[in-house]
Amino acid sequence: TAEAYNRIEALDGDVKAFLALNKEQAMKQAEEMDQVPVSERGPLFGLPIGVKDNIVTEGLETTSGSKILQGFNPIYDATVVRKLREAGLITIGKLNMDEFAMGSSTENSAYKITRNPWDLDRVPGGSSGGSAASVAAGEVPFSLGSDTGGSIRQPASFCGVVGMKPTYGRVSRFGLVAFASSLDQIGPITRNVRDNALLLEAISGVDEHDTTSANVDVPSFVESLTGDIKGLRIGVPKEYLGDGVGAAAKQSVLDALKVLESLGATWEEVSLPHSKYGLATYYLLSSSEASSNLARFDGIRYGFRAENVESLMDLYKETRAQGFGDEVKRRIMLGTFALSAGSYDAYYKKAQQVRTLIKQDFDQVFEKYDVIIGPTTPTPAFKVGEKNEDPLTMYANDILTIPVNLAGVPGISIPCGFSEGMPLGLQIIGKHFDEATIYRVAHAFE
Ligand code: GLN
């Protein structure tokens, strides 16, 4: 824990991954834990971890990257934070993110722009940019992120680390500041696959505080790291190697498939025909859910409150006008529009129907194949400022990750080569609740 704080002190002035540190409390916890007999210590015991700032931590400021939550000190821990403690991990600070997890570069944070440790002129990806950058910089060995449309996998890919978006329902969302409740999942970001498997095991499981958490067994993911992938059947969607995906990203996937073939797996081209509607479907549904979820930030209950107002209505309006950033306002407006009486059938309902088609695409491929493999992102990390002026180019970055959230299936990004001196990611997608097979394949590269 002390070493993590030293490293943060040395590097975070440049990387800017952390929003808050709780050094005093963490050092005290570490000291107390020294008393625990070695025989009672699990594999993660005593290790420091960083937590994305949309996951609530008792007594430690939680802003979700937004000005509207400035000064909000939660009175309870998220279920995952409690589970981290039970596994012996020490939460040492909160990690920067795009405001309310809306973005792909961490440039939408109200506080600071996190930099990619491989090249400080580039973005770390987003929205869990702080989570990925802190692990890549070696400030912490592990972090937690959240993924609604790619926010764990895309930054993991940009920063050359391992990031898992678990099956929807695998990990409790209790204490996760909601963006789009039907898509959000918390997951681990680590330097290798084994750590990732250990950490997911620690945070998984049904939770009485989250009715969407699933009552399914949590297997020992580490036990699946056998190195044996003989007979594994891989589907490679032609849409994931089509136009719009960079040559380097395509080549790195083809190279990875050769490695898997040499280990006894086979692969074939498959199709996810509705994935071309993924982006449109995602932005309608996620913005609709966000417009509802973000209604609670009214200046009364949490964090920031506008001053010099004349009436209650004025207080709401001014707090939200001053407290939310541009991207968040854009989504609230889009979502409110899509849910309004005149537009509901044409947009929201239609998007829900297309979501079902996208899910069925995955179901069909998984009838014949064990995993689906493709790139995580079309290109490596872009430059700070390069895409921030144009929301549509920014959104297009997530075309390969979004369908996975819409279908609710798990997906991981692992490092897979370089382009322009920057890391590229390989995405491995599995069946519902079959993270074990994903880890088995991912580990085969290590
Ligand atoms: N970049 C996508 C968005 O802006 C995904 C974000 C996420 O997964 N939280 O919505």
Task: Describe the structure in your own words.
Belongs to the amidase family. GatA subfamily. Its EC number is 6.3.5.7. With 446 residues, the chain is of the alpha/beta class. α3 (79-86) links the parallel β2 (48-52) and β3. The chain has 14 helices and 11 strands. It has helices at 2-15, 23-33, 79-86, 129-136, 153-159, 193-203, 247-262, 278-293, 312-323, 326-339, 344-368, 391-396, 402-407, 435-443, and strands at 18-21, 48-52, 90-95, 142-147, 162-165, 185-190, 233-237, 266-270, 371-375, 411-419, 422-429. Strands 1-3-2-4-6-5-10-11-9-7-8 form an 11-stranded mixed β-sheet, sandwiched between helices. It is 37% helix and 14% strand. The chain binds glutamine (GLN). Glutamine is lined by residues 101-104, 127, 147-151, 179, 286, 398.
Individual helix count: 14
Percent helix range: 25-40%
Estimate the global geometry from the Cα principal axes: globular
- Relative strand content: 5-15%
Topology as H/E string?
A: HEHEHEHEHEEHEHEHHHHEHHEEH
Multimeric status of the protein = single chain
Instruction: List ligands, each type once.
Output: glutamine
Distance between the termini: 27 Å
Strand order of the largest sheet: 1-3-2-4-6-5-10-11-9-7-8
Mean pLDDT: 97
Low-confidence stretches: none
Q: Which structural class is indicated by helix and strand composition? A: alpha/beta
Count of DSSP strands: 11
Radius of gyration using CA atoms only: 21 Å
Largest sheet: 11 strands, mixed
Domain Amidase: 1-438
Keywords: ATP-binding, Ligase, Nucleotide-binding, Protein biosynthesis
EC number: 6.3.5.7
Pfam family, one: Amidase
